[in-house]
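Hey, quick one: can you model this chain's 3D structure?
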Amino acid sequence: MIGLLRSFASRPSTLLGLSVFLAVIAIAVAADLLYPGNPFRMVARPNLPPMSAGYLLGTDMLGRDLTAAVVHGSRVTLTIAGFATLLAVAIGTVIGALSGYYGALVDDASMRVTEFFQAIPSFLFAIVLVAVVSPSRLSVIVAIAIVSWPSVARLVRAEVLSLRTRDFVRAAKVGGLSDTRILFTHVLPNTMSPLLVSASVVMATSILIESGISFLGLGDRNAVSWGYLIGTGRTAIRVNWWLSAFPGFAIFLTVWSLNLVGDGLSTWLDPRKTQAARA
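Sure thing. Here's the predicted structure for all 279 residues.
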């Protein structure tokens, strides 16, 4: 952990990304305190421009406060993307670990399944999955996880393949430990570092996919998300540009911060990148 903090401190861009992402999380957590009540309610005259009195980002065509909508949208978008990331990482870790550790038929079968999912465009596949099931937060989470786990599985498989021949694994086998215990208590903990990098990428991708699904009107219709706000504002974008611009900027800022954090984690894991950064 100390090494990670030092690596982050040596890269101002990573610190900036982490600060921005933590700020977005804080806003999402405090959404009800910052803007209590229903963000869908009408509060002022329609189409007020940004910086209007009492309405920082203006209002939409129905007189709803766009600032409140963006703040509450951060909670919806981050919640869906966060749970989708956890589910995708869990599925990918289990499949990748079993594939890399046991090899042979298990490896062949799991890799064929992984290749099948990777051959299908992720966003289109997610849209189809959500469209088949009734649109809801759960269906969006599951759909994103289904299209996101293959990259995690391939990463974990590669790590386990390199770890299963190490001396500590052989010593555990000689000690009579079961394969399950060796895999989950000795091998997998050593894959956590690259998994963190992968999780940051999956999280950023999940935000983009969720935003795209909500933009098309396939998300939870009872929830305000950033993609939903862009979708509702697109018809008036030439006149009321702020309706889509500010939610879009929120998506960009969050994904950008996650990419900076992922880059910092990657640098910390690769000594050559760390030396280059110091140079």
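One thing worth noting: The CA atoms of residues 200 and 258 lie 6 Å apart.
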